Request: fold
Amino acid sequence: MNIYDWHTGPYPARVRIALAEKNLQSQVRFISVDLWKGEHKLPDFLARNYSGTLPVLELPDGTFLAECTAITQYLDTLDGEPTLTGRTALEQGLIHMMNKRAEIELLDAVSVYFHHGTPGLGPDVELYQNPEWGFRQRDKAVRGMHYFDSVLRTQPYIAGDSFSMADITVIGGLIFAELVDLPIPAECEALLAWYARMEERPSVQNRVTMSMPSAVNA
Ligand code: GTS
Reply:
């Protein structure tokens, strides 16, 4: 399988962490798509993913799977342990809900802030920017941090008692928040403590160095 990604990207980090959690790294080849040069907006790449975003998983039969949630679900189904998307109907429902919340309330909000409220990927790639929308999403992301802090005051992981895809998505949000200098508020003690625990996981620590990326059309 091929993964089209960018080694320091917060969304690609989600799939890199999932791969490491499932010990599937040896089954994929990483193909680097340079976001800063806008390679993800070129026709070749858009043919692989209409949305023009990373990461994308290419299967041996030529199928392209985009969207971190879909890729994680696929990888989780390929291999049994540990499960990242739940076993029972209730676990799967809760993980899906919290994963979606982690995207809407945190990760996607930070991403919109990056693309609209900061120079983003630069003038050659950011063809439309709306700073006010960006700043609103920045504030939404901080509210999201408070929300996840409240969740973690009553349970050890984002979707309950076990580590899951929803934890990975919040980790992605906090990786992105660090990149745009959006710190976790000091009063979010449960979120800070949880994040310190997450940063100790080998899958999170080794996510950037897990492979040497090759060129886009290698
Ligand atoms: N909903 C998509 C997913 O979950 O996969 C979003 C993917 C996404 O936004 N990826 C970023 C991207 O391609 C990669 S990174 O910012 O994390 O490195 N951004 C480029 C762009 O122009 O939006």
About this structure: The helical segments are 10-21, 43-46, 68-78, 89-117, 131-152, 165-179, 189-199, 202-205.
